[in-house]
Design brief:
The chain is rod-shaped, with a radius of gyration of 27 Å. Helices cover about 80% and strands about 0% of the residues. With about 60 residues, the chain is an all-alpha fold. The protein has one domain.
Length: about 60
């Protein structure tokens, strides 16, 4: 068996390197995600306003308001 394979400092460096690789995210990707979230939130507000308007029209048509 090779002792280097089971070396604690060597294994720590390997784990640390893997963790840094996994946790790394490109700034452009982060900004894209934030932009998509903001766009979806805006779309939700628009849809909620449209729903309220349609409910108002339906209630008026049915003589409830």
């Amino acid at each position: 068996m090779c002792k280097e394979k089971y070396s604690i400092p060597g294994r720590f460096d390997e784990i640390r390197g893997t963790a840094l690789t996994i946790n790394r995210i490109n700034q452009v990707d982060l900004l894209t995600i934030q932009s998509e979230i903001a766009s979806n939130e805006t779309q939700l507000l628009i849809l909620a306003k449209q729903r309220d308007a349609e409910n108002y029209r339906l209630n008026r048509f049915l003589g409830r308001g």
